[in-house]
């Protein structure tokens, strides 16, 4: 039983299909991560081992963290950058096999850093899906100049095609900083008209919005609802985000 | 015995009546919090479970953290936002009872998010006090626009009335960000004339200044002294703040 | 064996002579620090107990942390500010003795906060060296105004003299913030011409660049190479920095 349960509604139970939270693990120690999940694991749906961080950690260390996260009914996965490096080095088969050996059941397919043709990306989504992975795919570029070349209609086309090809959810790139990328301007403020345009064309539940900063989280919760899917949440902000969703922090009290 | 004890004066012992440090816990895991207190608990007087974070944590988890903090002679309390939600939902009796069952002996009364008339707020302070709680009350609004409507003389009146009504200390709101609120401008710099005006009208020891950023902590220590009461200190900065107080960090070496 | 080892080259083994990473510990709990080192200790060469933080921690607590870090083949040392305070209080002999009792084998000699003449600083480097310590020395002032008085040629002279006097490496000051100090402008961007001038006059391997922010780490890795020595790395960013060095994060994929 939660404390002060008469002040707040019960949480939805996992596995959830909306109101998803995807958390970024940049390299937490095992014990620290476990201590954090004991207090906040209920509110984490996806856990991303950021970019290529797993490739500099011991196999056994990663496997134990994967098991630990799964014991909290969380879906861990490897940051898309590592997939891209495997693609670039023509080592996709080894990549998928290693991910499986480590216990990952979810895979992110992205092209944030390298150039992959649309058709090739779609093929990778299908391939991962056929191998039995849950697939998340990501739309957006990590480089500001490259990203600015991608107009909003292209983004929407990509989202639709990738969903059709088998992606469970499409992640909209915002990096760890949440600035100057995708729908965020240089100050990290959302571009309202682009958000509206996306929502007009895509089912809200198909998208996970990367929203690392609190003002962005507040924005999406107030605009779209408490059950919006949000990603790249810092491990320090898991509890804060859930209080925002439930109207338990000043920014959203009485508004959700 | 402290290491290098010949380079620094001994710390004051708790319970202290000035030089208080109030730390913000946004949702630390139990083991991580305990590990931190073992190294820095001597320098923490109040520990705030931020806003409504307790309402999404298990009763037993919160009670154990409360006990753990108390074992380090720290006074834990629940962020004022949760009191405000209880007030709004007409569940104050349940709120005070639950806080007591969880082991809290200190209560924060605030009106940062909702509208409570001055008289009602004073009544709440008295009520909590009569129930045997140590009361902290907070002056200031979390919303920038609402907060800007509160002029400095009104703030001073509120501080005086709340102190008279039984508040142990009055907290001056600055939120987690320390910007655009109360005595801080949009860059987080203190408005010197307002600080001076407050100090002219209120005993310095009656106030806890929320000062989450290092430059703000340095400012208050150099202006008011090492024994200034400071709040909303990030759990990561407990040790840093104490070194600032003791002249053991560049910013205050030879100046305190 | 590392996971996904077919996507990344093996790490160099410690003790390394270049590609060094110096991490800042602002006061981590023992268990939290140990948990972090188990996952990332391979990538830490020097561990700085920041400024005077050790002087407010129990002797036994510090000694245990020193031993723990050394068990991971890391060289722990005390922030230079504490040396400066000892110098100011004419307690250098006690300072060196206490550092040794605590298990430190490396000492930082700096004059970031107080005025020490060049000759005196050189003497301190020699003294520490003669006592058997590995010496790191630091060039730069913590105060913006004081630091701006130090021109680039003076910095280079100091680096050369201190290296000759026995410093293992020379640290270039940037503080925890990385802004408005030394080679960084008010936004934390490196001044390219000053970096070039230093590199023209000093062996790159003699320097540890304090570079607390990610854009600074990316800058130095792309400009100087993956084996650049970097310092004041936040404990949260150890893994991230190593992925930047190895081309496993978007910013450096395919570029190192």
Give a written overview of the molecule.
The structure is a homotrimer of 256-residue chains. By secondary structure, the first copy, chain A, is of the alpha/beta class. Chain A has helices at 30-40, 59-71, 80-88, 92-101, 118-130, 144-148, 152-165, 192-201, 214-224, 238-245; strands spanning 21-25, 46-49, 75-78, 106-109, 134-139, 169-172, 207-210, 230-234. An eight-stranded parallel β-barrel of chain A has the order 1-2-3-4-5-6-7-8, surrounded by four helices. In chain A, helix 8 links the parallel strand 6 (169-172) and strand 7 (207-210). In chain A, helix 5 (118-130) runs parallel beside helix 7. Chain B binds chain C through residues 1-8, 11, 31-32, 34-40, 42-43, 236-240, 242-243, 246-251, 253-254, and chain C through 26-32, 50-59, 61-63, 81-82, 84-86, 88-89, 91, 94-95, 98, 102, 112-114, 142-143, 175.
